[in-house]
């Protein structure tokens, strides 16, 4: 057993740590044993655990858990970048969410992380031309988690969606790497146009709660959007915008706003 654990730690330290946390959680709360065994310890890899968790959550009378699990397993086997993105997302949540103390928490309990990993399967289906199944994933993610992400949207790695309620990300939206957003964020269009109509969010951007970014506009790398803002125009890199409509009110205040999670305007305001 110890040799097996050592080999897991060498090959996949993230999964090894999650398994360690799972064993400790059962020791601390034995009643959680069946859930944690079925969700974590029963699986040989993070990929398998993710497929199980996604299929368990999204299953309904219209689509069985077995079918959904086969789809998720197929996606992970065909595209290793899905698991790489999941590991980056896990790290993002652990590093930036003050309420996250263990890697096992997002995997088992945080709907923002779970919805994002389910979206990644839906996006893979969309890329494979399996549009109706991708739409089914979108529908169930929206119904279950209250997060509506179009499967054609492009979302990078290292994403943290905190609280993750009432998130809307449109069909032609692009979200870069290492982005953090809070609840009730909308990346939407401004009308009935059918072409490229949604925002392009750069790397390292922090989007505050309730912010709306509308239209095919660029939000520059490492910028901050204050809570409740409505962004209708391009945001230069490393700036803070606030208001309705949003205007530049100062510098971003740090190199990586999405990582520092500093949402106070404070001394970064322009005079």
UniProtKB/TrEMBL annotation:
Output the CDD domains linked to this UniProt entry.
LbH_SAT
| EC number from the UniProt entry | 2.3.1.30
**Per its UniProt record, what Pfam families does this chain match?**
Hexapep, SATase_N
Q: SMART domains per the record?
A: SATase_N
Which GO terms are recorded in the biological process aspect for this UniProt protein?
A: cysteine biosynthetic process from serine
Write the record's keywords in alphabetical order, separated by commas. Acyltransferase, Amino-acid biosynthesis, Repeat, Transferase
The UniProt record lists the Serine acetyltransferase N-terminal domain at 14-118
Gene Ontology cellular-component terms for this entry are: cytoplasm
Ribonucleoprotein as UniProt keyword: no
Reactions catalysed, semicolon-separated, are: L-serine + acetyl-CoA = O-acetyl-L-serine + CoA
Is Lipoprotein a UniProt keyword of this protein? no
The metabolic or biological pathway listed in the UniProt record of this protein is: Amino-acid biosynthesis; L-cysteine biosynthesis; L-cysteine from L-serine: step 1/2
Please name the GO terms that the record assigns under molecular function. Answer: serine O-acetyltransferase activity
Sequence similarity: Belongs to the transferase hexapeptide repeat family.
Can you say what this protein is called? Answer: Serine acetyltransferase
Q: Which organism is it from?
A: Pseudoroseicyclus aestuarii
């Amino acid at each position: 057993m110890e040799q097996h654990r050592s080999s897991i730690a060498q090959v996949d330290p993230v999964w090894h740590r999650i398994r360690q946390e799972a064993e400790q959680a059962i020791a601390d709360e034995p009643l959680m044993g069946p859930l944690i065994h079925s969700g974590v310890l029963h699986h040989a890899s993070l990929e398998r655990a993710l497929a199980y968790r996604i299929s368990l959550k999204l299953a309904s009378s219209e689509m069985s858990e077995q079918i959904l699990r086969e789809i998720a397993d197929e996606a992970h086997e065909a595209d290793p970048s899905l698991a790489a993105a999941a590991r980056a997302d896990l790290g993002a949540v652990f590093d930036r969410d003050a309420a996250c103390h263990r890697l096992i928490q997002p995997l088992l309990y945080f709907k923002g992380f779970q919805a994002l990993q389910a979206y990644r399967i839906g996006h893979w289906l969309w890329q494979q031309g399996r549009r109706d199944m991708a739409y089914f994933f979108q529908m169930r993610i929206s119904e279950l988690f209250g997060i509506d992400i179009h499967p054609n949207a492009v979302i990078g790695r290292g994403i943290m969606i905190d609280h993750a309620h009432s998130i809307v990300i449109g069909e032609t939206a692009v979200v870069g790497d290492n982005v953090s957003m809070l609840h009730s964020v909308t990346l939407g269009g401004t009308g009935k146009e059918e072409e490229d109509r949604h925002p392009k969010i750069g790397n390292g951007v922090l989007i505050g709660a309730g912010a709306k970014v509308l239209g095919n506009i660029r939000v520059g790398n490492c910028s901050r959007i204050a809570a409740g803002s409505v962004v209708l125009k391009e945001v230069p890199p490393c700036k803070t915008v606030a208001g309705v409509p949003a205007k530049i009110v100062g510098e971003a205040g740090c190199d990586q706003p999405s990582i520092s999670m500093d949402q106070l305007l404070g001394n970064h305001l322009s005079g």
